[in-house]
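re: that chain from earlier
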Amino acid sequence: MQTNFGLVQLRNPSPLRSKDLTPAEFALAFSLYRDVICSVYPTRRTELDEFLLIELDMALRFRGSGFYTYHVHFASQAAGRIKQFNQGTYWGALDSELQRACRLMHICSFCGGAHARSTCPHNPTTPTD
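^ sequence. v structure.
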């Protein structure tokens, strides 16, 4: 996918990740992260609050785990920008290209494959009609 910062390749998250978080789990985890970051960088609170609102809005509007996939890829891109360009990322604005790509992706929360969990061949609860 082409972005303002160059070509970014989206890939499936690591299969080592145990599961996608629910919106409530994500909100709690990200709030704790935000509080730790803001204890050192208090000026980032508004930006991180805006990111949390973006994520929760996506979770409510689109259902499924697309909001969490967006978070994983957004955070990966932010880390890549720091590593490659020594450039920070503003977290308080929606990356609409990434959002669109994440809404179209089907990433299995059971095995990390490129399919929906409901059709996962590795999930013992998947119907086999």
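The longest helix spans residues 66-85.
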